[in-house]
Amino acid sequence: MTTTETHHLLRRPRSMPTLEDVPPGLNAEYTAKFVYFKSRTDILPRVCYNSVIQIMYSHLIIKSSWPPVKLTIPLVSIGYIETEPKYDRFDIRGHTFQLHLVGFRNVLQPVSTLEESRDRLRFLVVRQRIPHRIMKLPLDWEVSNTEKKDNKCFMRKLSIKRIKKSMKNLNCIKNNTDEAATCSSEL
Fold it and tell me: Are residue 59 and residue 80 in the same domain, yes or no?
């Protein structure tokens, strides 16, 4: 290898951005023309226009100009990040939400491609999961599995047979004590 090839290997492909005016804790900043946010608890999705997406410490924060909305999503809850370069579109999903960013641009590194921004966001998500797991905190999909089990138990308690049985018990209690004894023996 010649010295020019060695020098070429050591150089960065692009110059690093100047981060002098960036507030502390800001890992990335993006803009999007449209943001589509659908949570599991929402009946209708939220659609925002002309939004700024920031990654501050351990949260993804979305601020839009119209309608004025501020959404905060923990990075740990993000499970799927993909891009569609044809439409400049980002698709971010978690266990309880879907987030689509259309007209996506990187503010801190305007020359970067959509794939580079996707890889950077994936890195930030994985980097946030490490201390989360060290502190032995449950992730979203682990918590939701226990909630599903609890919901199934709750649905069993609300089954029609149990409701009918409890209504019979109420009818027996309201009647005379002699009939209550016969009702309880029937059940």
Answer: yes
Question: Is 111 within a domain?
Answer: yes
* Structural domain count of the chain: 2
How far is residue 133 from each of residues 58, 91, 126, 129, 144, measured CA to CA in Å? 14, 25, 11, 6, 17
Instruction: Please state, in angstroms and rounded to a whole number, the distance separating the CA atoms of residues 75 and 25.
Output: 14
DSSP tag of 176: -
**Choice between 2 and 171, residue whose per-residue pLDDT is larger:** 2
Determine the structural domain holding residue 103 and report its residue range. Answer: 22-134
pLDDT reported for residue 159: 59
Which pLDDT score, from 0 to 100, does residue 161 have?
61
In sequence order, the 6+-apart residues with CB closer than 8 A to the CB of 164 are none
